[in-house]
Amino acid sequence: MSAPLRRQLHTADLLSSARAHQSQYVSDLAELVAIDSGSYDAEGVNKVADWVQTRLERLGFTVERIPHKHPGLDVGDTLLARKPGRLTPAEGGRRILLAAHMDTVFDTGTAAERPFRVVGSTAYGPGVSDDKGGLLAGLTALQILQEHEIHAYAELVFLATPDEEIGSPASRTVTEDAARDAHFALGLEGARENGDLVIARKGVADFRLTVTGRAAHAGIEPERGANAALCAAHLVVALQALNGHREEVTVNVGVVRAGNRANIVCPHAELRIEVRAATEAGIRWAHQAITDLARYPAVPGTSVSVEQLDLCPPMEDTPAARHLLEQATTTAAALGFRIGAAATGGVGDANLIAGQGAVVLDGLGPVGGADHTPDEWLDIGSVPQRVALLATLISSLGDANLDR
Fold first, then answer.
1. What are phi and psi of 372, to 5 degrees?
2. pLDDT at residue 8 in the model
3. Whole-prediction pTM
4. Which of 75, 208, 209, 285 has the fewest CB atoms within 10 Å, measured from its CB?
């Protein structure tokens, strides 16, 4: 039997198993959605973590439970689970990271106010798509691989974070450490509404510009002052004018603060700026442009300092990511459906993973939409094919010998 034919039969077997698990998937999803797990509800997130940990340990994973002490922030634990395969890296075994998050954007009590329900082939409920549907799809794919005794990989790593919806401030270092030695990473966020996977996510850099002027009596001797508010106003115009100068780079002045009394020439102002860019080069360009504008303030006697507050790296559209997408596209075709590739300005844990050099493909959860709203939905009919896609990708990516 030829290798392509063996792969086709293998894919068909995994799809058959995924279909057999569909009713259990829906039952499990109802159980997960019934748990309130907003980012600031540490107790609720940890209930989800308990559920996920039990499932992973049942599948033979060793689970590390990582509590977080982040200043001014109470979040749940991160789960980092590992399962060794039968291939060493020297034998062609690869390390594959699956990444999902357990938190939602919804307040405690939402699960009772708006409980899980199914209408036709569509499920509704808080977090049903973002990201409990994807989290469960990953666990179901791992269960299918276990049932088929597929262990041709160096290691599987399953990461479930508690704070993705608020930018992963507590779990970031854990995510980056887990990604550092991964060959491939599969992000379990939901697929786009049209079924596309996510090939790229913009990075985000936050800046604070502090404008220092000189106070003076606004009525008696305004000429002795240097108005920081006026300087800030010129900066806002100049910063916003950076938009359109470089493709896939946006600059937004989101916060402006200045002065505290109307009868004083304003001595101090502050701007908060967000930059989004598809590439690291784009973020560097914006940083330099902001620095150049700050170097030559429009109001004599004022000065401007620039501070970068945070950086979430872009998940770039690279040749390696395109090759991974091609494998996913071929697999999807064998499973009877088509997928495309989408780039998005939204960020997630996949950005942090890509920043460590892993090859990442995101959006591998089931098809869903209306995330962060009362109308959030998930297409139950998409579950078997998406779970089979995940399982097949893990199986094929785990063994480098299959590429030869």
1. 70, 15
2. 52
3. 0.91
4. 208
